[in-house]
Amino acid sequence: MCTALTYKTENHYFGRNLDLERGYGEEVVITSRNYPLMFRHTKVIKNHYALIGTAAVVDGYPLYFEATNEAGVSMAGLNFPQNAVYYDLMEKKTNIASFELIPYLLGTADSIDKVRQMLSKINVVNTSFAENLPASPLHWIIADKQESVVLECTKNGITLYDNPFGVLTNNPTFDYHLTNINNYMGLFEGAAENKLCPEHQLNNYSLGLGALGLPGDFSSGSRFVKTVFLKQKSVLCSSNKDSVNQFFHILDAVAMPKGCVMTRNGEYEYTRYSCCINTDTKVFYYKTYDNSTIRNVGMYSVDLDGDKLYNYKME
Length: 315
Known about the structure:
Layout: E1 2-8, E2 12-20, E3 27-31, E4 51-58, E5 61-69, E6 74-79, E7 94-97, H1 101-108, H2 112-119, E8 122-125, E9 138-143, E10 148-154, E11 157-162, E12 167-168, H3 174-180, H4 220-233, H5 240-252, E13 270-278, E14 283-288, E15 291-298, E16 309-313
Parallel strand pairs: 7-8
Antiparallel strand pairs: 1-2, 1-12, 2-13, 3-4, 3-16, 4-5, 5-6, 6-9, 9-10, 10-11, 13-14, 14-15
């Protein structure tokens, strides 16, 4: 379970809540331009855009949860169980494992148009990182400063959806969310209008009645609708500080406290961290479940021309 969104004020922002029942040693990770990006079924990329985001680094490989590159293209993987299908190796295609998609695309792409071109040649293969790290069932939101798309690999093949809302949650497939949002077109931030029986006087006894029916549960469909509403109605801020603050308030409204969502194995899923990346300045802002202080790491604070990974523990 997760929620991701894009946001635009004077700058452009991208971020997400990561909702999981356990951690995987995630850190803030900067991949410098000359750190070799290794792939299981295609050649290494030795020089590429630098990346910043959250990753679990295993055997020197950054398994990114989400990231932004120097060109301002961002990408996040979100849980997509029962629907995600990866494929066997195919000749005449660039075979990329699901865990390699973020570094492969963001290492090269400077726009969504470039992402589209690359994906037309890619086959997402069912290769696991390791025996104890099987391929996670994911779908992805990808965005630049102009547009957003959703990538899904299912039994019907690879589909790239235009995402006019710049929001992604989890199951069902994205076409469901595009249809379901129509059920809420009447939501409004102001007072409710009496369409039921205009001949009788009905009163707005409380602020917020125009949004009566806005979902408040933690299901993926409800979080999608609520995030779209919050983003659309959000008061746009001029400064970076206020924009980042507003971004986190949107994420907070769909965050999961411990104890509210139980998995099938009896564990509690909760929002382990929330992050917001200014895709113009390449500053990564984040907070964790146990520390609500917003902290930040800047991509340009390190030597990007090197061949290193720079790791920063979240706690």
